[in-house]
Every structure is written in structure tokens, then in C-alpha cells.
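C-alpha cells in:
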């Protein structure tokens, strides 16, 4: 389903649902949680986590995460060996900058090459349950990816990638079951990069 196709379903949504979805398309408020230094680390971090390219349609992930953290809208749970999400984000972004500064002559995470950032994230991911700047590395990885994916896939432009035709409230779903699509849904978009020559 094209973006126009997903948004063409607005008339089938109730007013509250349409308002929430359409607000995601408009200008985002300025950041209120992240400092400029944290923003400079978080933005390239999210690009790597979501494999975003500069020519991709911009989906405002950082502003959504910022708003959640500023409002302290956490998920209602956390790992016992982790601080609250807002503190964990601050500490982990500072740790990215600190580790890059040690490895790359005092530069910050956002100032090194894409490859250097990728290698550092791979290192953090490979640490698993080992300590990384006072927090279990695997838990930090989970924090980042949970917030990134939640923010990304809440946006209607991302729904095309997964074949989601938009909210079905109040009309409901007709077809339940694996592989059963609603009349307004289409197959997920093909990813030519994931296909191999045979």
C-alpha cells in the first residue's frame, strides 16, 4: 500500500485516531529532553539502529523519543540492574561520546565516520551481559532498539514497509489468521537488498 493508500483510509478512522495519526505527519516540537550534545550522539545512533539513509523519507524518531522521555512516559517496567529510562539514555549517550573520545583523539560519537560508529555499536552489542559504563551492555542495546522501533513504526510512512494498512478502528478486522489480509491491505514492500541471486 502506498503512503497515499494508507492515508486514504483516514475517513474510516474515528476522529481521535485520525487526529493522532495525522499529527505524526506535521512539524515536530523542538526537543525538550535531550541536550544539544545528546542530540548529536542520538541522531547518528538512531540512523545506525534503523539502517536509515540520507535519501530515506524522514520519519521523526528522535523527537518522539525526546517527548516520551521528557514526559517520563516509560513502559511501566525496567530491568532491576538498569536505571530509569531517562537516566539510562543520558548515561548511554555520554558513554558513546566518552568511548569514542578515547578511541578517536577526543572526538564525539557524531564526529567520527559511519564505519567507526558501526564498529563501536557492534562492540557494545557483542558485550552482551558484560558491563559497559556501569550498565549491562545488552540492556542498553535493548533500551535503544525498543525506543527506536516503537517510534519508527508508530509513523504512517513506516507502515508500508510492513504491509500495515492503518488502524482498523472502528471498522474492525474481517480476516483473522496468518497471511490473511484485509481488503485495504497489500503485501509488504519488497526489499531488493534482502534478496539474493540464484
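Residues out:
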Amino acid at each position: 500500500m502506498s503512503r497515499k493508500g494508507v492515508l486514504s483510509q483516514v475517513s474510516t478512522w474515528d476522529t481521535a485516531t485520525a487526529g493522532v495519526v495525522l499529527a505524526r505527519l506535521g512539524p515536530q516540537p523542538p526537543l525538550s529532553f535531550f541536550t544539544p550534545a545528546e542530540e548529536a550522539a542520538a541522531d547518528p545512533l538512531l540512523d545506525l539502529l534503523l539502517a536509515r539513509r540520507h535519501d530515506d523519507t524522514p520519519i521523526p524518531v528522535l523527537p518522539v523519543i525526546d517527548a516520551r522521555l521528557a514526559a517520563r512516559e516509560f513502559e511501566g517496567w525496567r530491568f532491576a540492574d538498569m536505571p530509569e529510562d531517562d537516566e539510562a539514555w543520558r548515561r548511554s549517550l555520554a558513554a558513546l561520546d566518552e568511548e569514542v573520545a578515547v578511541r578517536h583523539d577526543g572526538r564525539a560519537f557524531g564526529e567520527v565516520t559511519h564505519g567507526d560508529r558501526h564498529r563501536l555499536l557492534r562492540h557494545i552489542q557483542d558485550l552482551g551481559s558484560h558491563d559497559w559504563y556501569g550498565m549491562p551492555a545488552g540492556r542498553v542495546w535493548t533500551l535503544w532498539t525498543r525506543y527506536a522501533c516503537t517510534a519508527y513504526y508508530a509513523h504512517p510512512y513506516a507502515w508500508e514497509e510492513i504491509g500495515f494498512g492503518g488502524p482498523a478502528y472502528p471498522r474492525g478486522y474481517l480476516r483473522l489468521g496468518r497471511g490473511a489480509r484485509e481488503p485495504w491491505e497489500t503485501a509488504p514492500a519488497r526489499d531488493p537488498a534482502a534478496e539474493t541471486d540464484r
